[in-house]
Design goal:
Subcellular location: Cell membrane; Cell projection, Invadopodium membrane; Cell projection, Lamellipodium; Cell projection, Ruffle membrane
Family: Belongs to the integrin beta chain family.
Shape: flat
Helix content: 10-25%
Number of helices: 13
Radius of gyration: 54 Å
Membrane topology: Single-pass type I membrane protein
Keywords: Calcium, Cell adhesion, Cell junction, Cell membrane, Cell projection, Disulfide bond, EGF-like domain, Glycoprotein, Integrin, Magnesium, Membrane, Metal-binding, Myogenesis, Phosphoprotein, Receptor, Repeat, Signal, Transmembrane, Transmembrane helix
Pfam family, one: Integrin_b_cyt
Length: about 725
């Protein structure tokens, strides 16, 4: 056995009571040799000073309490925070005209707090709130950097006007505004520009009059003189180069590092970069023989960048921190405008922040182990683009208080071979054992081995450990939650019966290979509940009076009844009507429960089928199946089955309604019309027949009366014949 393992084992001693640990106990797996190592293992770890039979002094605090260690004897230091400087953020408005008591830039506060101290314990986070408010009328320095290469010719006038417009708009934001101006073209070496003498004087072709090429030029340092800015911007002329990318990065670098020459103040600094082309990237300079990386220093002579041929390169508040010590992590969570909350990578920023807006950040700092050997560290957090910052002093808790109190070197409790601290011996090098009573060089003897055999068996420490100084030191398991224990390592806490793949069903603890069940549980695997409340039916009877409760589950004795409390009867009358409305709303989205379907009708699993032949049949399943046929408000029939599969309710429904077909209108109308016509014709025929019969009867009557009539012959006295006879007097009767 390794010397370090032996030392740890003897310090820990022997313990025969097994307590189930939570999965992934980092305290035990750390195998801490002393209290300092223990509290560095995790935030929940504690060290017990008390003289009690413990398998390990380093464990989770709650586990130590459960195993008899008093609170006063548990070393469990906690981290703290102290806010040292907490000046409130400045609330001020922009003042028109002359302000007599105008604060200096260093007197304006935009971030709170400004300084604090954190005492960090391993794995125990410390959080604090940071407030940021963009102060109104805060001084601003703006530097306008313009591309004067030939490709900007078409946009030159717009760029000039843009600079003037920027100055006017910024003066509306703050009364303390400085503006500067610079320009750039390209590296002044081949192949970026032409180095012929004529092209160095005028790089443009034809009659174009251009200024000589240059890398970067500081035309106007930061000033409050707006007229001078307008004048210099208006006088700018374009230059020329040969390639498409420009030397913008060189210019940006010089603007950033040449603070004295540019005139930067310790206020908000803004850089406006105006170009129409891309940048040269690192390595591009090799074409011109430039191999040195940019040194990040200022190289302006007479406001002109001289080293371009040697090197190459809000509306949002973003927090940034300095380099963190190894083992220290920091997390941000932002509370921005309009209730927007960001975390993780976005937690360090807030967008759409205007002047006067206030946002809050919650910052959490966590350490692991004992960074920097316990020495204090200082980190700083600041919003990008602002000079204000928060200073955080980090102190690391690496030792326990008991390691400084009541420490006895060469203690008699440690056989004069170790230091007694925090209730345990810390053995000198080369000594092992709970009381440092053995030498690590001593070999096991037969006498020592005899005390490590149970009942004079041949197995030393039950083959689960080694005999050291006459005491069994049990083996460590790969899983730190699994442990051998007992005087002869005959016990363990992982070889008990399981239920649902859980040790002791998750309802007890494994003690020496037997389950000790929690109250209201029984069985070898503690998987039988003694609680009958789960078997109570709605009528308060156990299993509805139709079954028996076994391990908290109803076993129905009446085959017609099913369900968790033997209350469901799929084949009883009324089942179809009971579930009709829920089946209707879930399957077809209609019916009286259409609006409350989700709340009232989610108690069964719905399965749709294409036609009635696909519905489950009584012989298809080992449980009863009820076939139902119901009609909706539109006289449409729908078909479904209802069954209970153990505790699951299943409804199979035909996905199409069986609705009666509508009447054929055309035949009906044609029939009605034909009927009316036929009835009319029949009436006319009847009327004609009756008229014929009537006429014949009248004619016969007339004939009869005519025959029976007797007329007297006489001359009408007033009758005068129509014939008049005239005798010709001359007629003599001769032919």
């Amino acid at each position: 056995m390794d010397l370090k393992v032996i030392l740890i084992s003897l310090l820990l001693g022997v313990f025969c009571y097994c307590n189930p640990q939570k999965e992934g106990n980092e305290c035990i797996s750390a195998n801490a040799k002393h209290c300092g190592e223990c509290i560095q293992a995790g935030a929940k770890c504690g060290w017990c000073e008390q003289e009690v039979p413990l398998s390990t002094r380093c464990d989770e605090v709650e586990s130590l309490k459960d195993r008899g260690c008093n609170d006063s004897q548990i070393q469990n230091p906690t981290g703290k925070k102290w806010i040292i400087t907490n000046k409130r953020v400045t609330n001020r408005k922009k003042v028109t005209g002359v302000e007599t008591n105008k604060p200096k830039p260093e007197e304006i506060t935009q971030i709170q707090p400004q300084k604090l101290r954190l005492n960090l314990r391993s794995g125990q986070p410390q959080s604090f709130d940071l407030k940021f408010k963009r102060a109104e009328d805060y001084p601003i320095d703006l530097y306008y950097l313009m591309d004067l290469s030939y490709s900007m010719k078409d946009d030159l006038e717009n760029v000039k006007n843009l600079g003037t417009s920027l100055m006017l708009e910024m003066k509306k934001i703050t009364s303390d505004f400085h503006i500067g101006f610079g320009s750039f073209v390209e590296k002044t070496v081949m192949p970026y520009i032409s180095t012929t003498p004529s092209k160095l004087l005028n790089p443009c072709t034809g009659d174009q009059n251009c200024t000589s090429p240059f890398s970067y030029k500081n035309v106007l340092s930061l000033t409050s003189d707006g007229n001078m800015f307008n004048s210099l911007v208006g006088k700018q002329q374009i230059s020329g180069n040969l390639d498409s990318p420009e030397g913008g990065f060189d210019a940006i670098m010089q603007v950033a590092v040449c603070g004295k020459e540019i005139g930067w103040r310790n206020v908000t600094r803004l850089l406006v970069f105006s170009t129409d082309a891309g940048f040269h990237f690192a390595g591009d300079g090799k074409l011109g023989g430039i191999v040195l990386p940019n040194d990040g220093k200022c190289h302006l002579e007479d406001n002109v960048y001289t080293m371009s041929h040697y090197y190459s390169l809000s509306s949002e508040v973003i927090l940034d921190n300095s380099k963190l010590p190894e083992g220290v992590e920091i997390e941000y969570k932002s509370q921005c405008k309009n209730g927007v909350v960001n975390d993780k990578d976005d937690g360090r920023k807030c967008s759409n922040i205007s002047i006067g807006d206030e946002v809050n950040f919650n910052i959490t700092v966590t350490s692991k182990g004992c960074p920097n050997e316990g020495k204090s560290e200082t980190i700083k957090i600041k919003p990008l683009g602002f000079t204000e910052e928060v200073e955080i002093i980090l102190n690391f808790i690496c030792d326990c208080q008991c390691q400084n109190n009541d420490v006895v070197k060469k203690s008699e409790k440690c056989s004069l071979n170790g230091t007694f601290e925090c209730g345990a011996c810390r053995c000198f090098e080369g000594r092992v054992g709970r009381n440092c009573e053995c030498s690590s060089n001593d070999m096991a003897t037969d006498d020592m081995d005899q005390t490590c055999r149970k009942d004079n068996s041949t197995d030393i420490c039950s083959n689960n450990g080694e005999c050291v100084c006459g005491t069994c030191e049990c083996k460590k398991r790969p899983n730190p939650e699994e442990r051998y224990s007992g005087q002869f390592c005959e016990c363990d806490n992982f070889n008990c019966d399981r239920s649902e793949n859980k040790l002791c069903g998750g309802n007890g603890r494994c003690v020496c290979r037997e389950c000790i069940c929690d109250p209201m549980w029984s069985g070898r695997a503690c998987d039988c509940s003694l609680d009958n409340s789960t078997c109570l039916a709605t009528n308060k009877q156990i299993c509805n009076g139709r079954g028996r409760c076994e391990c908290g589950v109803c076993k129905c004795t009446d085959p017609k009844f099913q369900g968790p409390t033997c209350e469901t009867c799929p084949t009883c009358p009324g089942v179809c009507a009971e579930h009709k409305l829920c089946v209707q709303c879930r399957a077809f989205g209609t019916g009286e429960k259409m609006k409350t379907c989700k709340e009232e009708c989610s108690y069964f699993n719905l399965i749709t089928v294409k036609d009635r032949n696909k519905l489950p049949q009584p012989n298809d399943y080992p449980y009863p199946v009820m076939h139902c046929k119901e009609r909706d408000a539109n006289d449409c029939w729908f078909y479904y089955t209802y069954a209970v599969n153990d505790t699951e309710r299943e409804v199979h429904v035909v996905d199409k309604l069986d609705c009666p077909s509508g009447p054929d209108i055309i035949p009906i109308v044609a029939g009605v019309v034909a009927g009316i016509v036929l009835i009319g014709l029949a009436l006319l025929l009847i009327w004609k027949l009756l008229m014929i019969i009537h006429d014949r009867r009248e004619f016969a009557k007339f004939e009869k009366e005519k025959m029976n009539a007797k007329w007297d012959t006489g001359e009408n006295p007033i009758y005068k014949s129509a014939v008049t006879t005239v005798v010709n007097p001359k007629y003599e009767g001769k032919c």
